[in-house]
Amino acid sequence: MYSLNDEASVSVSFSNRGKNFNVVIKAWRPTESRWAWNIYVNLFERHPLFESNEAILNLPFHGGVTYDKSSRDEYLNGDLRGLVKIVGCDYMHLYDDFENCSPLDGIPYSIKMDAEGLFRKLKRSE
Q1: Is the dihedral of CA 117, 96, 38, 88 positive or negative?
Q2: How confident is the model at residue 94 (pLDDT cuts 50, 70, 90)?
Q3: Of the candidates 86, 88, 92, which has an alpha carbon nearest to the alpha carbon of residue 29?
Q4: Mean pLDDT over residues 48-55, rounded?
């Protein structure tokens, strides 16, 4: 379910992948005693929402979009996809309580539900 990239970062596998997008959950350690969680959407240029920044900002991200990057010739699982927008959110807001949730114990339920909600919304718009 997860793969250790190094001692400070764990990439948690989230298998839902659309034709022109995927959703990734990441957990990483900002300090030795805390965990931080993020959800990222990789939106490829063939996806209908790719050109609409407004539509992307209105996706159901926890606390809103806190990460936004565009990249060319991004590789994903060995596939050259062309231009990709990487948009994400974090779970480090006031009253978020995930710093003690280790990915070794699984993905916290509410984070997994948020990722599944993003997947459904993006899939409907494909």
Answers
A1: positive
A2: confident
A3: 92
A4: 93
Q: Which two tokens stand for residue 24?
A: 């990734």
28, with CB counted inside 10 A (0-12, 13-18, 19+), is: middle
Count CB neighbours of 14 within 10 A.
21
Q: How do the residues of the chain divide into helix, strand and coil, expressed in percent and rounded to 5?
A: 20, 40, 45
d(CA 108, CA 98): 8
Would you say 12 and 27 are in contact if contact means Cβ atoms under 8 Å apart?
yes
Q: What is the sign of the dihedral through the CA atoms of 34, 31, 59 and 16?
A: negative
Is there a contact between 88 and 40 (Cβ–Cβ < 8 Å)? Answer: yes
Tell which residue, 64, 71, 80, 76, has the closest CA to residue 118: 64
Model pTM score: 0.83
Q: Which amino acid is at 22?
A: N
pLDDT band at residue 73 under the 50/70/90 scheme:
low
Provide DSSP, 82-105. -SEEEEEEES-STT---TT--GGG
